[in-house]
Design a protein that fits this description.
Order of helices and strands: EEHHEEE
Helix content: 10-25%
CATH superfamily: Beta-grasp domain
Distance between the termini: 45 Å
Protein name: Sulfur-carrier protein
Number of helices: 2
Number of strands: 5
Shape: globular
CATH class: Alpha Beta
Radius of gyration: 13 Å
CATH topology: Ubiquitin-like (UB roll)
Strand order of the largest sheet: 2-1-5-3-4
Length: 93
């Protein structure tokens, strides 16, 4: 099942500067695993040492945060779009 994955600028060096790639899987977690198989280096940037998504990484499926769905077990279908969004912090007003 082909899913489009939007890649943030800081991670595009792993995808040969592609801002969007396709990956396969039946769940968000499987799609991210396929992303790692095709573009090694994603796992260490997305997951912590316990195998959990890093707290500053947000994953959206069709504009919905997967944390409010079924997390990495959220099912995907052909044509869905996953966005990897690193949290932005810092600065002052």
């Amino acid at each position: 099942m082909a899913v489009k994955v939007k890649i943030p600028t800081p991670l595009q060096r792993l995808t040969n500067k592609q801002s969007q790639v396709e990956a396969e899987g039946f769940t968000v977690g499987e799609v991210l695993a396929d992303l790692e198989r095709n573009f090694p280096g994603f796992k260490e940037r997305l997951y912590d040492e316990k195998g959990e998504l890093r707290r500053f990484i947000n994953i959206f499926l069709n504009e919905e945060d997967v944390r409010f769905l079924e997390g990495l077990n959220t099912t995907v279908k052909d044509g869905d779009e996953i966005s990897i969004i690193p949290a932005v912090a810092g600065g002052s007003l």
